[in-house]
Design goal:
1 helix, Immunoglobulin-like, five-stranded mixed beta sheet, four-stranded antiparallel beta sheet, disordered N terminus
C-alpha cells in the first residue's frame, strides 16, 4: 500500500516535472536617473530555472515611459539571458513602481512580470501643489512654499498666471533654496481653475519652468 501511495504521488507530479520558469537574479530592477537625465537605461540578467525550453512571444509595458527587450526569443533549461530596459524620465518625480509583461509559450508561466522601481530625484518641491477655495469663501490670501531640493541652488526669475482673477506675489526666504508664493483670488463667486508658471534659473531645461495651481470649486454636500 505504501509503495502504491508513492507511485500515485509520482504520477500526480509527472505533468509538472517539465516546467519553464523565467526568473530574475534579483527581486526587482532599480533605475535611478540623475536630475538632468531625459532617459535612463539598464541591463538585467535572468535564468530559465525550469526543465524545458521557453519561448518569448511578446513583451509589453504597463507604461509608455518604460520599454524593454530581451537578447533572444528561446531559452533552454538552465540558460542565462539578458535584457535591456529604458525609462523616459519626462516629468516623473519620486518613487514609482512599473512593470514589463513578457508573454511566453509555456502554460505554467504564460506571463512573466518584470518589476521595476524608479527613483527620480526631486529638484523642486511645491507644497501645496494646488491652493483651493470654495465658492462663497472669503477671498483671503493663501501661500505655497517652493523649495529647491537639488544639489544646486535655483532662483525664481518670474511668475505669470493663466487667470486674471487672482493677485499673486512671491518672496525669497532662503537665497536659492526657499520661496513663498502668495495667491489671492479677487472673488470666489465663480468656479475657477488656473495655474502659475514659475520660471527658474535652473541650468536643466526641464526645471526652468514649473507649475503650481489654484482653484475655486463648489463645496461638496458632504463638506461641513
Amino acid at each position: 500500500m505504501k509503495s502504491l501511495s508513492i507511485l500515485a504521488l509520482l504520477t500526480c507530479l509527472m505533468p509538472f516535472a517539465s516546467l519553464a520558469e523565467l526568473a530574475l537574479e534579483v527581486p526587482l530592477i532599480e533605475l535611478k536617473p540623475r536630475p538632468e537625465d531625459e532617459s535612463v537605461t539598464t541591463t538585467f540578467v535572468f535564468h530559465n530555472k525550469g526543465t524545458k525550453p521557453v519561448k518569448v512571444l511578446s513583451i509589453d509595458s504597463a507604461c509608455s515611459c518604460l520599454s524593454a527587450d530581451l537578447d533572444k526569443a528561446v531559452y533552454a533549461p538552465g540558460e542565462k539571458g539578458t535584457g535591456k530596459a529604458e525609462f523616459k524620465v519626462s516629468s516623473f518625480v519620486g518613487r514609482h513602481e512599473k512593470s514589463v509583461h513578457v508573454q511566453t509559450d509555456d502554460p505554467s508561466q504564460p506571463e512573466w512580470v518584470i518589476p521595476f522601481i524608479l527613483e527620480v530625484p526631486e529638484v523642486i518641491k511645491i507644497e501645496p501643489k494646488t491652493l483651493q477655495w470654495w465658492i462663497g469663501d472669503e477671498a483671503q490670501a493663501k501661500t505655497a512654499k517652493v523649495t529647491m531640493t537639488g544639489d544646486a541652488p535655483m532662483s525664481i526669475k518670474d511668475i505669470t498666471s493663466t487667470r486674471e482673477n487672482v493677485e499673486f506675489s512671491w518672496k525669497e526666504i532662503t537665497p536659492g533654496r526657499e520661496y513663498e508664493v502668495t495667491v489671492k483670488p479677487k472673488n470666489t463667486t465663480d468656479v475657477m481653475l488656473g495655474a502659475l508658471r514659475i520660471e527658474t534659473d535652473s541650468s536643466i531645461p526641464k526645471y526652468q519652468r514649473q507649475m503650481a495651481f489654484f482653484s475655486v470649486y463648489r463645496k461638496p454636500a458632504s463638506q461641513p
